[in-house]
Write a structure and sequence with these properties.
The complex is a heterodimer. Chain A is mostly beta strands. Chain A contains no helices and twelve strands. In chain A, β5 and β6 form a beta hairpin. Classes of the chains: A mainly beta, B mainly beta.
Chain lengths: 116, 117
């Protein structure tokens, strides 16, 4: 069975602080994909990144960076110099096979509040 | 514009009154799915469909029905809604990659906030 754990329910930071959102996953698949989605206050779900299980290179996109460590089954997300617009709920998700079907399994989300 | 369209965005209904939430995608995706989002529980899969006329239960299917008569449409039916089905619902679609899990992730609709009183 697949499982994604986001232990941080809510994080509050002051603007310009760096913040890391943790994601730990469980899977028996050898091929799988990891995702991060952002849900701003407006409610829609926005794709941020996909990582495959064979590529452990860290990725940076502007103020966002992702650290994938297969040894600890973690896929953490760091926002550098946070801004108020980063306030949202962030979901980590895992794509793998369950039986013959595929699905995305989501964590419970981390609510990030960035204040001035 | 490539998108998943859900309707309605907001719905308040009474217990027991049948309702349908529509979902349509214009990307020719084989895979479609419904999720519900509840505080502290994240997103949980209700039903999914790998292609036309192929549907299967997700993790929380009780009280819901779906159909996939056309590739683009995947309506969610609540035959007799109850207050515990009050939730935020998302329709999602994806291309299927041969012999791989959902490589492309999901394209989500904008969500339907359902309140059952």
């Amino acid at each position: 069975a697949q499982k994604v754990t986001q232990a941080q329910t809510e994080i509050s930071v002051v603007e310009k602080e760096d913040v890391t959102l943790d994601c730990v996953y469980e899977t028996r698949d050898t091929t799988y994909y990891l995702f991060w989605y952002k849900q701003p206050p407006s409610g829609e779900l926005v794709f941020l990144i996909r990582r495959n299980s064979f590529d452990e290179q860290n990725e940076i996109s502007g103020r966002y960076s992702w650290n994938f460590q297969k040894s600890t089954s973690s896929f953490n997300f760091t926002i550098t110099a946070s801004q108020v617009v980063d306030s949202a709920v962030y979901f980590c998700a895992l794509s793998g096979f369950t039986g013959t079907a595929s699905k995305l399994t989501f964590g419970t989300g981390t609510r990030l509040q960035v204040t001035l | 514009e490539a998108q998943v369209t859900q309707n309605p965005r907001y719905l308040i209904t009474v217990t027991g009154k049948k309702l349908t939430v529509t979902c349509s995608q214009n990307m020719n995706h084989e895979y479609m799915s419904w999720y519900r989002q509840d505080p502290g529980l994240g997103l949980r899969q209700i039903y999914y469909s790998m292609n036309v006329e192929v549907t299967d239960k997700g993790d929380v299917p009780e009280g819901y029905k779906v159909s996939r008569k056309e590739k683009r449409n995947f309506p969610l039916i609540l035959e007799s809604p109850s207050p515990n089905q009050t939730s935020l619902y998302f329709c999602a679609s994806s291309l299927l990659a041969p012999d791989r899990p959902l490589y492309y992730g999901y394209t989500f609709g904008s969500g339907t906030r359902l309140t059952v009183v």
